[in-house]
Amino acid sequence: MVNESFIGMSLDGFSGMSQQLLFLLCFSVVCCTNTDVSTLLADIFANYNSNIRPGCNRSSPLILNVSFYFTSIKDLDESESKFSISGAFEFFWNDDRLKWNASMYGGDLSSIVIPKQKLWTPSLITINSFSEAGELGKESSRLRLANTGNLHWITPDLYQTTCNLDVTFYPFDSQSCVLRFYLTAYRANEVKLFVLKNSMNQQEFEENGIWQVTDTKVYTKDNSLGWQELHLQVNMRRRLQFYVSSLIMPVCMMSFLQLFVFLIPVESGERVGFAVTVLLAIAVYLTLVQEKLPEASEPNVSCLSYKLLVDFMIGIMMVIAVIAGLQLYHQNQDRIIPNYLRFLHNLMFRKKSRKIKPEQVDDGCEEKSEDTSAKQICWMDISRAFDRACLLGFGFCLFNCNIVYIIVIVSIYT
User: Buried (b) or exposed (e) across 113-141, using 16+ Cβ within 10 A?
Assistant: First the structure.
């Protein structure tokens, strides 16, 4: 029979040996050091020339894979036609001159980070830059290099370009802006741009308070000179809540507010002041709209500008009509009322009266004729009939002006 104490000692000894063996295995794993990294950099860059594009086979082009991460719309200035977005380009390509065997450098040195200045990198320049054209990517940026020679470069930046805006339906407009980048020096048979995804990556996108992005596109195009261009297209629609509450509704209400000038009693003496005040308010809104829009007539001028201009012209005619109405009201009662003004009075108040010879009486109106069906008509009555005619006429004009504008705006959403 085996001694139990001996068995216990044997198990304890085996357990201790296992722990020692496990300890040795853990600390005997090969890992790279700073010396290995320094040696690798010295080896791969010994005969490397960053001025020569990658590719041992010069008859086939270098495939430059590209995608774009879209993070936010910073600004779209209608008056300056300036479009600004923030995002990052992501490039992938292979440089067979930069391969190495990981087992020769610590065993696990499979990738390193290298400054941009040491490597060949694609040179893309913004064609439609808002300010001065600059090369894509900062000199301080870095790239990740794998032991297979694959290079991965992410270059975030703020991109400011020009954008030809169509403000025909402002503020109910949709815009499409394109950022154009030109691959310098290299033709398509030397370096070939390949888009990994036809749309922008919007996983980290932050919504804009004014513009809603409806679609994005990333594509390449050969220009008329045979050079490659990389295009980033952003399609967006303006958010309406702010403009409807602060611009469209006040403009429509002010246009109809002008009509109430013909309901103000002439005796108050406030007619001309009210009409001029509303007219100036419309002029202020017209100025505000024009300040936000580009100073150009192509492709079209905003429909809202035309509407405000029509409202302004109607307002001017209303001021003239108010002054004419006051002139009729304070007309000398000795003056005979022309037949066309009598017709206007009868048309507005639907009174049928015969032509009678007016005679002056003490209250300033014409004396009743022997025919009791004929009502006395004075210049104050003519003034009231003129006010009613202006109220109906200008109301009809303003109503049709707003209806036409609404129909035009609704047509773009159907």
Answer: ebebeebbbbebebbbbbeeeeebbeeeb
Establish whether the linkage from the previous residue to 156 is cis, with ω within 30° of 0: no
Q: Collapsing DSSP states into helix, strand and coil, what is residue 65?
A: strand
Instruction: Name the pairing type of β-strands 228-238 and 174-183.
Output: antiparallel
pTM of structure: 0.75
DSSP SS3 for 73: strand
230 exposed, middle or buried (CB, 10 Å; 0-12, 13-18, 19+)? buried
DSSP 263: G
Per-residue pLDDT tens over the stretch 355-400: 444 444 444 454 444 443 345 788 888 889 999 999 999 999 989 9
Q: Which of 52, 59, 191 is nearest to 124 (CA)?
A: 191
Which run of H or of E encompasses 42?
A: helix 34-44
pLDDT digits (tens, 9 = 90+) for 299-355: 677 888 888 888 889 989 999 999 999 988 888 888 888 888 888 888 888 754 444
CA distances from 57 to 37, 61, 120, 175 (A): 29, 8, 16, 44
209 in Cβ contact with 239 (< 8 Å): yes
Question: Strand pairing of 124-126 and 174-183?
Answer: antiparallel
Q: How far apart are CA 175 and CA 169, in angstroms?
A: 10
